[in-house]
Amino acid sequence: MILKKYYEGETMLKIKKLEVNGFRGFPQKTSIEFLNPVTILYGGNHQGKSSVLNAIEWCLYGDECIGEKSGIRERVGTGEMSWRIINDNCDTAIVKLEIEGENENFTIIRTLSNGKSKKGKTIKILLQNGTEKEGSEAEQEIKKLLRASFKDFITSVYQHQETIRDFVIQKPSEQSDAMDRLLGLSDYRNILKGINNSNISKIQKFLAEKFDRFQENLKNALKIRQGDLEEKENKAIEMGLNIDELNEDKLLELAESIINDINSFAFLIGINAKKISAPSTWENTPSFIKAVKDECERLWGESPEVKEQIEKNNKRSKAIALKSQYETQYGIYTTKKEGLQEFIQKNGNEDKIDYDINKISQQIDNIDQKIRQISPKAKLIDEGISILKSSAPSEANNCPLCGQFVSDLLDHLQKKLKEEIQTQIAQLKNEKAQLEERKKTLENLKEELNNLKEETQREKVKLDKIINQISNFLQKELTDRDDPSSILQKEIKDIDSKLQKIENAIKSKRDKINEIYKNTEKINLLYEIVQLKVKLEKINQIKKTKEYKNLEKIKDDVSKLTGFVEELVKTIKICMQKEAQTKINLATNKIDYYFRKITDNPAFQKINIRVEKGKGDINQYIFEDQDGKRPVPVLSQGDLNSLALSIFLGLAVTFSDSHHLGFIIMDDPSQSLDPEQKTRLIEVINEISEIKNIIVATYDPEFLQCLKDNISKLKSIYIFSNWLPKRGPIISKE
Amino acid sequence: MIYNSMKVETFYSLKKLQEKYGIKGKPSGPFGKIIQKLLALSLFELGATNIVERSVQGADIDITLNGKKYTLEVKTTETLYITLSHENVQALLYRSYDGYQPIIAVLRLTVFTDWILALIPKDEIPTGQILIDNLNRYRMKDLEKQLSPIFDKVVIKHFKDIFKGGEQYLKEQLRQAGIAQPDS
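The joint structure predicted for all components is written out below.
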């Protein structure tokens, strides 16, 4: 009924003639006429058959059929990888399509140039009434006349080779993809792919991780300060503070208490306290602590007992120093004195030494006298001998005692005399030298004795000086009979006794001032704790900065965007599923009819197609037989091809009322079909040719023969052969 | 007042509790329950009524606040993610039959810790591992803002006693506040 209606409606547009020049496989101008209900393009691979079909598509839809948006895989890619329109040997591609309609005929001319002089695209439509429209106006007019989108065109007009090929591959994901394309759902898939490629979730995760790293760095910085804080808190607890008290409130409370303690202390010692103000906030603590310390020192220093204590302590120190000086000097002096006495005892006193020196000097003088006396006597005897020699030289050698002649008697006597005198003098000189030595020793002893006397006297002077100082210190005259050391020792003992009395008197006051100091230390520790806590808390201020808020806003915005995109994806998937299910529902009878017709498999009395959510909520198509069993895993490639063709043809027939195109293009439909299936496919084509013109491209001679034998409509057959790059194919018409 | 907020102190207090009561890799251990009870107490301080806190089965906390009924699934984590099990979601959905709106309450234990209260339409509640940032679009920021300082106060107030007495101490506190604990 439906077929008849469309046929009778005579609303269909049919292709009358195609003229190509410079388009893909056609470097030269070529024309093909589509005057009969069935046109068969026959030839081997790469002979230009598909280029003819592509030319029709491009002329009708232009850029829509190029690139990823076309939903046709082989047309994806850019640059060298792109699906090229213009023949490599040409600068311009021109496709002219003459179309015959119910009320009017029209011609579409589409061009694309990349030549040096002329670049760009043109589109022109020539209407029967002579009107000529160009550019967007022409595109609008074409759309109006065709009433078919490109999606409609590839779903229900032009069966591409690859949709069948992918379907036959049998890989479920690719089968679903092919089914989506058969159903014209490529746009949805492309959008989903685009969204997936945008990696919004990854960006969100990246942002979250970056932000996390920033927080981690902050955490590490805080950890160090937190360690300091805990150390101080432990110290404060050791000092008797409670963990709950480590705060500003306790600090201010302690400050008030310290002020009260200072006032009480001042009252106790009878001195007026200066006014100290309690800190208004923890931040004023350092100046408060300084004021407290200064005032405590002042009050303590001005306390009468403390003053006396200081005075006594000073006196005690002085006494100890003098006692020490005296004892040291007394020791030195005593040693010197004893040394002197020992010397005198050993060597005699100065008078005795002087006496010995004088006595020796006298002895030396006597020796000198003797030596002087010996010399003139020797000279006189020598002179006498000389006279004897000269006065009686002949008798000189006669011994005066015996009268005998002695040779050189006088010379001998003279020599003997000289030797004797010399011996005497030498003995005297030796004696003298010994005396002089002894005299020298005594003189040295005398000098040493004098030195000892002087040194002893010097030390005595020093000792007297110290004794004088002690006398002044004690304010008491000291005699030689007094022992300054003992007197000083007694004085020190007296001072100690007095100091003990003072200490006993001020002990309670000392405890009070120590308590104030201890509380001051606590306040100082509390100040450091609060300061650290505030520093830690200041890090929270980062959260209030504009930059941080901006960062959070970005995170929120990305989260919202992710949410929107997720919604969008969900919606697209729902639409995709619904559209698929709607189309399948509408075409299911036709699909089932064509499938059983082409396969003629008794096992299949019915083929049902359901759409389910597959992995990632993408459409998954379930094919079931009459028993609800899934035949797809056991279907032959021929059966799968038949199924794909059935879906295409089912959709083509079912939705043909949605557009004005009165023809169906089938590119290599017989792939993988067995001879029987090919024959039955032709029966289906024959049936459809009742309402639609059919354009079939095939390389299959068996299929060609079947077409020739079984198509009952008028048909044109073009044989494509001997394609050359610079010429294109030779096309002959049978 | 010395401090603008007690955030850092809260964080370190919670870290100390985690060191004592946390079980690595088990966020629903004693520490998780402590956090859940602290949240229940904070919501009580915030003015929520009809509070029910569950330690074992079902949604973690039910409350009525400003005339609206909410059911909360409480999650504590140190990572960027939380894991919502099918049971968690089922528990929230089950409460929706009684008019409760599901909230995923997340406390991420790091500096600048804030509660995330994500009011998610029941058909949009995800399962599995979820990036916390993904919940941002569902956040009840006004409520979070009110809750944050109260939570700080509650943590500081009870820290010492929780450190000594653990979850048991908090159970008693909840009991005294009139918060129902069906499985206690």
